[in-house]
Amino acid sequence: MSADALVRMVLFSEALLLGLGIALLVAHAVWWWWYDRWIGGRVEAVRAALRGALAAGDARPAFARDFVRLPMRLQIYLLGELAPHLSGAERHALRRHAKHAGLLAKAEALCRSWFWSRRLFGAKICTLVGHPADVVLTLLADANPSVRAQAIEWALHRPEPAVVASLLRMLRDRDGRCRFAAQDTLVRLGHAAVAPLIACLPTADRATTLGALDVALTMADARLLPPARTLAGSPDAAVRARAVALLGALGSAEGVALVEQALDDVDPHVRLAALKALGGLSHWPAAPKVARLVLDPVWDVRRQAALCLRALGAPGTLFLRQLRVSDDLVASSVARYALDLATVGARA
Amino acid sequence: MSPAFAALVERIMGPVEATVLGYFFLINLSYTALLIAAVVEMRRMRNEAVGINDHIVVGSRLAPTISILAPAYNEEATITASIQSLLTLDYPNLEVVVIADGCKDRTVAVLTEEFALVEVHRAYAPRVPTKGVVALYRSVRHANLVVVDKLNGGKADALNVGLNLASGELVCAIDADTLIERGALVRLARPMIIDDQVVATGGTIRPVNAVPTRNGQVLDVTVPRTMLAGVQVVEYLRAFLLGRLGLNRLGGNLIISGAFGLFRREPMIVAGGWLHDTVGEDMELVVRLRRLGYEQRGPSRVVFVPDPTAWTEVPESWGVLGRQRDRWHRGLTDTLWRHRRLIGNPRFGAMGLIVFPYFVLVELLAPVVEALGLVILAATLTVGLVDRTFAVLFFALAMGIGLVLSVATLLLDQASFMRFRHPRDLPWLVWWSVAENLGYRQMTVYWRLRGLWKYLRGRSDWGAMTRKGFATKPAAPATPAPRVG
After folding, report:
1. pLDDT band, residue A347 (cuts 50/70/90)
2. CB contact (8 A) between residue B125 and residue A77
3. ipTM above 0.85, yes or no
């Protein structure tokens, strides 16, 4: 084949591809225009019917037939925009309507699908309507991390010790989104997660302990004091730092004494955590000890000590004023910074 | 012309022509590979986006803190809208650090008036060395807004000051004239939450010229009707959705746009922050982070996420655009030269074996070979070695490949995000894809060659960039509800 013929052939192929591309672009735009108008009206009607049904408490709402005929992602979209704002009787009503519409049975069937995207949709529907189906439990061990993460989110509707224990095991999941979802769900579970958390902390491996302590810190439940006390003496500095932060969040006399002790820890992260904790508690009797840390060898600790003094109120401010005229330039600088922040009312 | 001279030209041109043709084949093969990889990657990322619910991250107290670093140099026209847009982003733990880099206009004064700034004593650990800080301000109105006024030291120096002052686990580097979509930060942080090995992520940049905005948010996406802005819409789409998305799958990216990128703070500080003595500081940083990640077995993945979008004003004058492209090419050359030992080095995995050679052969050398091709075409036409019809056909073929790639990228964008909703925008998009080849592309070849030449002569200036400001609409009583579908 000559070069000329080859170029002509390639040009012809290009023209075909270009024509096809432009035709697809136009076809997509036309389809979108039509679909948007067609579906927009239906979605609006179903949305209004769903709201009406929830408001009237209708047992067999008229919307059911239209609702199930919507594409799956739009059903999820509609539930997703409504469900987070519902609780109590309205949430029950939503579940009842979903059941009458056949959506719950369909969601359970989807959860058993071979395809992960369908299992994900199934778990999503169960999460949105708060359907505590057993089949979703099996998805906590699904091979696909997206499905596992969705099942973790769903676990909020099954606050049983076994489920919570599974969530705690997932704090060391190999996928970050599952670890994040597990922590978030445990925090949202609140009270129901505390006892399993206490049981897990003494025997857990490092990754689980760190994840669980982050959860515990956000919960700040008084029952967590004994494990926090124990872990404050851990040889692992990261564990110690989190345990000290937890003790600060719990704030008992015994806990505060341990936090004060942590100001002398060899690890700067632990000292930093102790300063943040004392600042959060506004524990003014610790002011002299905190003021000493403004001269700490680690810069971050010095800055945090100044901010902590600011949080301790008048006694801290006295120390800051003394430090402001200190010969130590860094101490003087961080003290001025903390005092200025106090006047602006800004956080650190 | 004598037959002897024609024979001499033929003898010289023969091997050069073969090289250029071989290069032409290689470059288009790599673009096709990128397109296929981009389609596969888009599908994977769309699935991944379904798997993590953004509302969980937004509503979670456990979300990592993000510090946005916004360096500003003489940005008084756009700074208020930009910072307002940053302060209203959908993210729970957010800090905004604005760094005025020795501004000669009223940038700091405008910020002080608009955000009720009060000067506070400057106390921070200069973990990355920078030029001096003149003043540090906190806002009485917004507790999470920090403004720094510093001596002029360039964008890299300003970002390093921000890095020293930031308190977040993650830092997001942006240009102060960039508008970020409300939900963009959550989507940009998603790969970091999923994978500890991800050290940086970047989003898509789109030109905001001719797009109406209100309160720092884009209202309605339209295609600009002016040539330079319109052509750049297509060019940016191709660079991001085809180039960067494709590279995600073929060994990872080497570039995170300086206008919108998210980084883990600690590895950044260990790496020494942004380099001062380069005009390609964004690319250089990404290469250095990845290189250190490989060498120290730390996080080394860099992910481009197509969904989160930042809007930026692109140049609409040939002079400014030329200076920008010339600078970009100098930055690229400098980075590739600094890290030249990565080329073909199996120790650095796919980055050394695929991505780095791609950047050298395709991104760096493309203008040289393209210019050479044009010279050869002209020379062979002059001596009559090539038939005129064949030359025209070949030129059309080269243009056609670019056009097919542009239309494929537009299709990928529309099918995935449907950004351009007005039917009248489609003909404009296709037209700009065509028009790009008629003068614009040849000019970019010239600018990039100029950049290469300047680099070889040791020039490292940035060139001035003028801004018009955003097409802001007055505030309306209510925002219309988004359409479903």
Report:
1. low
2. no
3. no
